[in-house]
Amino acid sequence: MNIEEAKSVRIVDFLTRLGHHAQYVKSEQYWYLSPLRKEVSPSFKVNDRENEWYDFGEAIGGDLVELGRYLCGMGSVSEALAYIERTAGNASLPRIRLPAALPRPVEADMKNLMVIPLRHHALLSYLQSRMIDADIGRMFCKEIHYELRQRHYFALAFGNVSGGFEVRNAYYKGCINSKDISLIPHLHGEVQSCICLFEGFMDFLSYLTLRQMKDSTVCIDVPCDYLVMNSVGNLRKTLAHLQGYGQIHCYLDND
After folding, report:
1. Domains along the chain?
2. Which is a Pfam family this sequence falls into (predicted)?
């Protein structure tokens, strides 16, 4: 078995052959108790559409070859391939058809980018539809204009630590330039003892709106810094940054 053949094996079927069964399935996401360690709550996810896995407890993931290496005690690729082939047995596991190449990201075709203060009424109306205060939106977001396939578009832009932007409007969600976490300190140059963690920037803006309304059932009434992950793929960076905080308040998606 070579690498491409191993990558084409469906991870869900491979785990079933090993005796691991999903605790629950949600939108092609299969959640397992990790096969790499003992746990009582499922934190090992398989994206069945992409045929990739991610262990949130260890902040590691990849394709079936990489999983085979971890199951073999971080052995070589050849050892992982042999292990996968032995597990498949004489009757090969079902295969999936992988795309010949990843589609070109739409962001790569964006041209004539321009970032300005947030003021377009359509974007402010979008924030209002999400129950987010317009002044808070203006404080933390910019307005980005760009051309794509000879048409003009505009959206909210939320900056990250690498100089990139999370981009959002009512019809589009994406990222321009580097994907990274966003840090919003309570005071520049000073680290607080408490930090609030969010998965997406719209959650962060919603939190600030509730805080402005003095909603004590949700919000923390002490000075704190804020971190927006912008993607679960940034988990490793997030965990590294959280090391310096005594209190961490998580406002994450319930999945």
Report:
1. 3-88 (3.90.580.10), 106-176 (no CATH), 182-251 (no CATH)
2. Toprim_2
Between CA 106 and CA 232, with CA 116 as vertex, the angle to 5 degrees is 45
Classify residue 163 as left (phi > 0), alpha (psi -120 to 50) or beta.
left
Helix, strand, coil fractions of the chain, as percent rounded to 5: 30, 25, 45
pLDDT of residue 101: 46
Nearest to 233 by CA among 39, 35, 56, 107: 56
Give Cβ neighbours of residue 221 (< 8 Å, ≥ 6 apart).
none
Residue with tokens 């630590």: 161
Structure confidence by residue, pLDDT tens digits, 136-152 = 999 999 999 988 777 88
